[in-house]
Write a structure and sequence with these properties.
With about 140 residues, the chain is α+β, with helices and mostly antiparallel strands. About 30% of the residues lie in helices and about 15% in strands. The protein is built from 4 helices and 3 strands. Strand 2 and strand 3 form a beta hairpin. The longest helix has 20 residues.
Length: about 140
């Protein structure tokens, strides 16, 4: 279903249930040492999911740490995005030679106004999400 939303050169993955509970490497765990349990689960899901994508695409990344603005510091040559909401976490990555960045946001299924969709989506994205609304 999501293949129709992401461009061909964007690799994506949905976090599997175990990814939410499995601790990440020590350097990543330090980033959430003082976080509440909910935040720790979300962080672990995102980082474990990202590492799974890295492995699938032979990308070397021992620890996905934070950048200057607390964003994930993606491996050299890669851009990406991690987004999560209640029970769902998705990671998308792509080569930086193909994309400058990736914007990804998942939220609970509540309809957006047409005005909001026009502000945050390209026409192709609006068309793709409209088609998804009518899938059985």
């Amino acid at each position: 279903m999501l293949d129709s939303i992401f461009p061909e050169k964007v690799h994506w993955k949905i976090a599997e249930p175990a990814m939410w509970e499995t601790p990440v490497c020590d350097a990543e765990e330090q980033l959430i040492a003082k976080a509440v349990d909910k935040r720790k689960r979300e962080f672990r899901a995102g980082r474990n999911c990202a590492h799974s994508l890295f492995k699938e695409h032979n990308i070397n990344c021992d620890a996905l740490l934070k950048g200057k603005q607390r964003e994930p510091a993606w491996p050299d040559g890669w851009v990406g995005s991690i987004s999560h909401t209640a029970g769902l976490c998705i990671v998308a990555i792509a080569r930086s030679e193909d994309f400058q960045s990736i914007g990804l946001d998942v939220e609970q299924a509540t309809p957006l106004s047409d005005e909001t969709r026009a502000i945050i989506c390209r026409k192709e994205e609006i068309d793709a999400t409209t088609r998804l609304q009518f899938l059985p």
